[in-house]
Structure formats: C-alpha cells, structure tokens
Predict the 3D structure of the following.
Amino acid sequence: MYFGLSDEQSFFQDNVRRYLKEHATIDNIKHITSGDEKNLSAEIHKGLLNLGINGLLIPEKFGGLGLDLLFAAVVSEALGGGVGPTPFIASYVMAPTAIKHAGSKSQQENYLSKIATNEYRFGVGFSEFIGKRNDAGISFSDNTLNGRAMFVLDADDATHVLLTDEQGQIFVVDAKSANIEIVKLTTVDKTRQYSEVVCNNLEAELLKNSSDSTDPLIHAIDAGRIMLAADSLGASQTMINKAVDYAKERKQFGRVIGSFQAVKHMCAEMAADLEPCYAMVWHAAHCHDNSPNEARLMACHAKAHVSEMSKGISKKATEVHGGMGFTDLLGLHYWFKRIGLNRQILGSPELVREEAYKAQI
C-alpha cells in the first residue's frame, strides 16, 4: 500500500512552488520586507488566489473546492519553502475551519461563500485562549467586545477578524469599525503579518455553535498548528537544499567543502531529522478530517516535533554556509526567522506537549 501524497495534491503543490519561484524571488522578498514595493506582495497574493488557495477548505455548495486539510498542508509547505509573503494560515485555513464548525447555517453561507469569492478576508486572534498575556484578553458582554488580543494573524488589510474570549466563544468583528484598533506588530519575520487588536465596545457577532463547547475553537487552532508545522517543513527543506548546493560549490584548501566529512555529516543529519516529519505532518492533516480520536494528539505532536527539528536544521544549514549564512546577500535569514516564529505562534513545543498529555488523560 502506498502512503503519500496523491497526484492531485502533488500537482497543486507544484503549481504553488513554481509560481513562488517565479514571483517571490529573493530580490522581491527583500523589496517587500523593506517596504520598497508595497504593491508587490498584493500582486503575489492575487496570483495565488488565481490558483484557488482561498477556496481550498470551502465546501462546494458555498463556491469552494471542498478539499481536506491535507491539501491545505501541502500548500502551506510550499509557501514555507518559498517564504511566500501572503496571508494563508489564518485567512484560508483557520477562519473557514472555525466558521464551518462554529457557525450557524446562515453564518456559514454568508461568510464562507464570500471567502471563496475573496470578498471577505479574515484575520484570526485565538492566542489569548491558549495563553493570555499580561494586560491582554477579550471580554464579551451586551453584544460587545472589550480588551486586547496579541499576535492576531493576517489582520492587516482584513475585512473581518475572528476573536475569542477565555471561554472559547468565537466572535466575528468588522475590521473597519471605528471601535477597533489594529496595530501592526514588528517581529523577526517580515514575510507575514502579525497585529495587536484593541476592542473598545466593539460590536461583535457570536458564532452560534461556539457558545456550547470549545471544540470548534480547538479544531481551528489545531488546523493552524498543522499549517505552521507544514510551513516550517517546507522552509527547512529549502534551507537543506541551499546548504547542499552551497557545499557543492564553495571551495576551501582547493576542495569543495562538501567533500569534508564534517560538512557531509551536518547535511546528512539535517536530511535524516527532516524526513520523518513529512509523514508526521501528512498524518496529522489526514487525522484532522478523518480520525477525530487521533486529531488532537497528532496536531500537537506535529507542531512540537517539527518545531524542534526545524530549529536545529535552520541552525546547521546556516553554519554550512559559514559567514555568508549570516549576511543579507543569500537571504537565508528569511527562512531562519520564519521557522523561529512558527515555533512560538499558537503554542511553543512545551505548551502543546502539555496539551497533548492532558488530552490523553
């Protein structure tokens, strides 16, 4: 029996990879992250929308492709490999997942159909449910929200934002309201958007099915964790590829450095560490839709394990490049920083392992 990606999944992933290779070059990424080309990231995003990334998880009856999370995982892997400077995990994975499981029929029809047509784009702020920061947290009363949410994903330029309170209720708010303030956060990863959202008597719409159980919220968070693991997986593979290519070209003492045993061992260790991660991420994505008894555990394990492995790979790949690895010329730091922030967003390895343990007792 063959365990791996289907031809359709591989084809979809290859299309995203080719597009990013052509349009998200290192030079373009440098321009985007420095703020020189404000419209360039929007153009790249538009091209990815033409490939259908916004409708992946939207049911066909609402105008989407009706695919499962494994399709989204292979896209996230491709985006990580190409450091795609575009919204995806929050806007087109976590938001549709939350609305599908927590929204009423009318809410699903309204929001999912408009995500599929790109009329609506969502930011997602669920971090406070996982671990509230000092002076942060959202409270709900009289149909309004007050408080502050940190590390909200994809909120910049979003039309709506999904927020949650400590009870796990999920709310839809208008990102253009006068009672909301969205402040762009500066992080080490300049290829994606992170924001702080401040609510002041902000009118909010409760997703109906989230008031009875935290399951819809946890389901959406786990989907996001699997996407982050897949993103780090793709970024790690790119860093390995770049390290191997560099080792074949760079010469010292009249020999390419790839012929030195120490460098060979570093490259072999990186490949050996990463290879099992593919099966883990793919299995976690499969379980999310097809094996509810395993879904929580696998999502936590995938996020924790890939975070640890990719951290080591990013370090070794940079070391293979020597001093050049620390310069802006090669741009390795874009993958390095993306992996580092993926490790912390939606729970550090220590936190998600603790959640996995609690889920089994």
